[in-house]
């Protein structure tokens, strides 16, 4: 709590320096300045200013300036920050069942994830986040598909055995590492580059755009297209802040975020081939292991979810169209 309080004090000081006549929403997020998510937020900010005639603006705090993703969501929940974002499955810190969305190979693609976000199951979760935690999810942006980089080639699931694999401190991604035989090593996002460079860990897993933005390919000679988790960035606003906006302001914000999300998705899709080419030019070898054994390895974790949340829990998600 002491760390969170300190970060909140920093955030308050930053915001106080930017008080203006218009309605300003302060947005904190983890992605770096050169990332597609950052450019999407810039696009959203520009669009919001344009459609509101300057009456409404976004103030962006990128690159984890205000803390890690969990700390920033907590600031939103407490009303100390207006908006932040986290993968929908990452909201498991509030609703444990959402962590299932990070379970490897459960979600097929972003279309499937979007359907879940807007399904009755997803809407129930979103309502509970708002009611119980003052977090109102208002949009979902494509973030990417998580792949696995390493200091040794991964040509099959057997090559994962015993690998020290950096994961976020998220149960489902830790389960991915365990399921394929690796040793999960949760490390803060900002510390991953050094951990890879010094061989404190053997590999990490992230979307390609993040691997490029954080330059992990500079210290990892291999990239395996494991395609294990499809992710979004679910953008939430403080419920109290949302209710304090006029209907016109709410509409402006939703429209601006939609434009920003389209920009981010366009950049992520367009950059994938470019990023892979960049990796290869830097000497990275890209492998395409058979994923069938990876999927089979995760079945016990589906059974655990069903035991925890109900007999048909995972099948309900899998069947969502």
Automatic annotation (TrEMBL):
Its main location: other. It comes from the Bacteria. It is found in: Cell envelope. GO terms for cellular component: outer membrane-bounded periplasmic space. The keyword Amino-acid biosynthesis does not apply. Keywords: Signal, Transport. InterPro entries: DctP_fam, TRAP_DctP, TRAP_DctP_sf. GO terms for biological process: transmembrane transport. The keyword Nucleus does not apply. Residues 1-21 form the signal peptide. Belongs to the bacterial solute-binding protein 7 family. This is Sialic acid-binding protein. The lineage of its organism: Bacteria, Pseudomonadati, Pseudomonadota, Gammaproteobacteria, Vibrionales.
């Amino acid at each position: 709590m002491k760390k969170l309080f300190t970060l909140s004090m920093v955030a308050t000081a930053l915001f106080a320096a930017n008080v203006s006549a218009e309605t300003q929403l302060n947005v904190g997020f983890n992605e770096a300045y050169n990332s597609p998510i950052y450019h999407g937020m810039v696009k959203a900010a520009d669009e919001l200013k344009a459609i509101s005639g300057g009456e409404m603006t976004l103030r962006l705090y990128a690159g984890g300036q205000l803390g890690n993703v969990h700390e920033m969501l907590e600031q939103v929940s407490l009303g100390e920050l207006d908006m932040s974002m986290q993968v929908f499955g990452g909201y498991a810190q509030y609703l444990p069942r959402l962590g299932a969305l990070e379970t490897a190979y459960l979600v097929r693609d972003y279309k499937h994830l979007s359907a879940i976000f807007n399904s009755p199951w997803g809407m129930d979760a979103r309502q509970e986040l708002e009611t119980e935690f003052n977090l109102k999810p208002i949009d979902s942006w494509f973030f990417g598909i998580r792949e696995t980089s390493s200091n040794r080639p991964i040509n099959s699931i057997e090559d994962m055995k015993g690998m020290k694999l950096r994961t976020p401190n998220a149960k489902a991604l830790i389960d991915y590492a365990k399921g394929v035989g690796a040793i999960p090593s949760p490390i803060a996002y900002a510390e991953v580059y050094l951990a890879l460079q010094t061989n404190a860990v053997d590999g990490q897993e992230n979307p390609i755009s993040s691997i490029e933005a954080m330059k992990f390919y500079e210290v990892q000679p291999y990239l395996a297209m494991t395609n294990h988790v499809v992710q979004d960035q679910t953008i939430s606003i403080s419920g109290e802040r949302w209710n304090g906006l006029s209907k016109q302001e709410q509409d402006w914000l939703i429209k601006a975020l939609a434009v920003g999300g389209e920009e981010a998705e366009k950049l992520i899709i367009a950059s994938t081939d470019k990023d892979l080419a960049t990796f290869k030019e830097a000497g990275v070898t890209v492998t395409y292991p058979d994923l069938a054994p990876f999927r089979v390895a995760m079945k016990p974790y589906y059974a655990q979810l069903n035991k925890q949340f109900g007999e048909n829990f995972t099948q309900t998600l899998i069947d969502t169209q």
